[in-house]
Design brief:
Layout (H helix, E strand, L loop, with lengths): L1 H6 L4 E5 L8 H16 L3 E5 L3 H9 L3 H5 L5 H14 L7
Parallel strand pairs: 1-2
């Protein structure tokens, strides 16, 4: 389906997941593949109204950053940044 849309020139894929009742790693792989193909073609993929289970699945499999375009461990990045800011002097006179 994704390939058909991209071949037809459609670059914005907006998928409504309201009626999706089950998704395992095979389904997640389909979404990841669709996201990769769409991004490579210069478009975007948006998954709307995912169930709580589907929202957790990318985080449990450490693939969320591939779907959500976010860092893998954002909390760690914030902690490292905060530690560096505390250790860094604010002026040369310090």
């Amino acid at each position: 389906m994704t390939e058909d849309c991209l071949r037809d020139g459609i670059r914005a894929l907006d998928i409504d997941l309201t009626l999706l009742t089950f998704c395992d790693v095979s389904g997640l792989n389909a979404f990841l593949t669709a996201a990769q193909l769409t991004t490579t073609a210069g478009g975007w993929l948006r998954l709307r109204h995912p169930s709580p289970m589907l929202t957790r699945l990318p985080d449990l499999t450490a693939t969320g950053f591939l779907l959500y375009d976010r860092p893998l461990v954002p909390a760690l990045s914030v902690a490292v940044t905060d530690d560096l800011a505390v250790a860094r002097p604010t002026s040369l006179a310090s």
